[in-house]
From TrEMBL, chains A, B:
Gene3D superfamilies: Carbonic anhydrase (3.40.1050.10). GO terms for molecular function: carbonate dehydratase activity; zinc ion binding. Zn(2+) binds at C38, D40, H91, C94. The keyword Glycosyltransferase does not apply. This is Carbonic anhydrase. It comes from Rhodobium orientis. Its cofactor is Zn(2+). InterPro entries: Carbonic_anhydrase, Carbonic_anhydrase_sf. SUPFAM superfamilies: beta-carbonic anhydrase, cab. The lineage of its organism: Bacteria, Pseudomonadati, Pseudomonadota, Alphaproteobacteria, Hyphomicrobiales.
Amino acid sequence: MSKIKDEVLAANEAYAADFGDKANLPMPPGRGFAILTCMDARLDPAKYAGLAEGDAHVIRNAGGRASDDAIRSLVISHKLLGTNEWFVIHHTDCGMETFTNEVMGELLSKSLDTATVDDSGWHDTGAGPGSEEGRYINWLTISDQAKSVRGDVARIKGHPLVPKDIPVHGYIYDCKTGKLVEVTG
Amino acid sequence: MSKIKDEVLAANEAYAADFGDKANLPMPPGRGFAILTCMDARLDPAKYAGLAEGDAHVIRNAGGRASDDAIRSLVISHKLLGTNEWFVIHHTDCGMETFTNEVMGELLSKSLDTATVDDSGWHDTGAGPGSEEGRYINWLTISDQAKSVRGDVARIKGHPLVPKDIPVHGYIYDCKTGKLVEVTG
C-alpha cells in the first residue's frame, strides 16, 4: 500500500463529507475566465487568484507555457465552455530556469532517476539505465520570466484558433511574497 | 479595465497579505508526488486531494489527458524535482465527452466564437470567421472515462522516459459527490 495514496484518500473523504451545494455546479466556468500557470508545488492558483469551485478553468504544466496542449485546452475553454478572458502566470524561482534542452537530454541519456543539483548545475546519480528519447523533446525551458510570459501571451494571441478580442493578461507570481506582478509591453 | 482582472488582483492582495511561512518553501514538492487532472472549473485538486502549498505538482489540461505536454511535465517532475508517485484523475460529466475531433474541426471551421449545445449536440452561432486549423489538432476527446484513465495510465507507464518503478494511480473524481473513485485493471 502507498502512504501517499492513503493520505490523499483520507483528505478526499473529508472534502466529500462537506460537499454541499457543489454537487449542482454547471460545467461552464461561472466567472468566464481561464488561468494558464505552472505545475510548481508552491503555487495554488485557487488561493492566489481567489477561485471557488466552478469559477474558472485552470491549466497547468511545467513552466505554465503556451504549449500546443495548453492552446488545445484554451481553445476548448473558449469555443465550447465560453471563457472570454485568459491569464498566463509564470513565477519566480521556476525550475524551468535551471536547465536547457541539452542538459535535460544529456541527464536522461545517462539515467531516468532523479538528478541532483548544486551551484555548478545538475548532476546525474549514475543509476542508469537512461534513454535517448529526451533529446527529441522540446522541454520549453525559460531563460527570462518576463520574456517567456510575453512570448507565451503573443503565441496565444496570434494563434489562428484564438479570437482577436480575448484579453490575455501576463503575470509573474512572486514565490517570496505571494504577489502577482503584471508583465507589460 | 477588466472587472475580472480587478477581482483577481484584489483576491491576490488578500492572499499575499497573510503569506507567512510560505515564503520559505523549497522548489521540490515536499510530499514527493504529482497529480495530472482536468482543467474543469469544478475541480480544485488542492482541496479534493488535501494539498497545501509546497506539497505536490499539479498538471492540468482539457480532460486531464496524458498528452505529450503532460508527459514533458511529469518527466521534469521526477527527473529534476524528485516526485516518485503519480495520480491521473479524470472526472464525471467532463466536457471532453461531449464532442469528437470531427465535431470540433467543423465548429471551428465556421466560427471561433463560443458554440451552443442542446440535446441534439453542438451548434455554431454562425458568427464567423472560422479557421480550418482545428481539423489538424487531436483534441483528445473521451468516450469512456474508465477507459481514458486506463489508457492514460498505460501511456505514462510505458513511456521510455518514465522509470518502471513509479506507481501511477488512476481515479475518476465524481462531480456530484466530490469523491475519488479508483479505476482498477
